[in-house]
Amino acid sequence: MRELMAATAEHFALIPDARAEYSIEVDPREASADMIALLRELGFNRLSLDVQDFDERVQRAINHVQPRAMTETVLHAACSTVSSR
Fold it and tell me: What is this structure's pTM?
């Protein structure tokens, strides 16, 4: 992700995040607090969590099982990253 953002910055004039919105979608099944912190460090200031439904039956039906606690952990990591700035 560092390489991708560096390459992006080489080809585009990126505005400081205080004046721009840099968004990314994150799958809570694959995210960690460290990943969230890295994304913030790289300038991402808007996070979309990939949540289809909290009903386990629906999750199984669409093959996208993620316990609510997993999503909440990622959400708390994102909130603490923002509040620490």
Answer: 0.78
Domain range enclosing 50: 15-83
Instruction: Give the closest residue to 41 by CA, choosing from 21, 17, 25.
Output: 17
14-52 pLDDT, tens digit per residue, is 888 778 899 999 999 999 999 999 999 999 999 999 888
* 53 within a domain of the structure (yes/no): yes
Report d(CA 39, CA 61) in Å as an integer. 31
Q: What is the spatial distance between Cα 53 and Cα 62, in angstroms, rounded to a whole number?
A: 10
| Residue 9 within a domain | no
Q: What's the structural domain count of the chain?
A: 1
Closest of 28, 25, 21 to residue 43, by C-alpha = 21
- Number of Cβ atoms within 10 Å of the Cβ of 59: 16
Place of tokens 């721009």: 20
Instruction: Let me know if residue 23 belongs to a domain.
Output: yes
Residue 20 lies in a domain: yes
